[in-house]
């Protein structure tokens, strides 16, 4: 099972969620970058780059959800872990 292997490698649900959020930002950067660096190619080329990178986000969010379910079943994600994560986020 891929999710189990990812969990054993140390990849957690929050890592996948962060990758999903980063890919959303990268989508915008790729779209704007393509518009500016390839002005002769037009909007269609920029849209293709944005869509290509934008398709990564749902995959990362799906993996994050699957990892979260696995962590709950595995017992590695508990209410205290969630509380600790929230406290860390508030501190930042």
Characterization of the model:
The chain is mainly α and 92 residues long. It has one domain (14-35, 46-91). The chain has 5 helices and no strands. α1 (2-8) packs across α4, α2 (13-37) runs antiparallel to α3 (42-54) and α2 packs antiparallel against α4. The longest helix has 25 residues, at 13-37. The two termini are 35 Å apart. The mean pLDDT is 85. Keywords: Membrane, Transmembrane, Transmembrane helix. The chain crosses the membrane at residues 16-35.
Largest sheet: none
Rg for CA atoms: 17 Å
Shape: elongated
Structural class: mainly alpha
Which residues sit in consecutive blocks of at least 5 with pLDDT less than 50?
none
Count of extended strands: 0
Distance between the termini: 35 Å
Determine the number of helices (DSSP H or I, runs of at least 4 residues): 5
Order of helices and strands: HHHHH
Beta content comes to under 5%
Q: Mean of residue pLDDT?
A: 85
The tally of domains stands at: 1
Helix content estimate: over 70%
């Amino acid at each position: 099972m891929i999710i189990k292997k990812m969990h054993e490698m140390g990849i957690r649900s929050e890592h996948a969620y962060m990758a999903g959020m980063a890919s959303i930002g990268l989508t915008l950067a790729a779209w704007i970058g393509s518009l500016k660096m390839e002005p002769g190619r037009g909007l269609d080329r920029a849209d293709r780059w944005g869509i290509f990178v934008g398709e990564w986000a749902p995959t990362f969010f799906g993996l994050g959800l699957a990892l979260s379910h696995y962590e709950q079943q595995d017992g590695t994600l508990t209410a205290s872990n969630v509380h600790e994560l929230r406290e860390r986020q508030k501190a930042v």
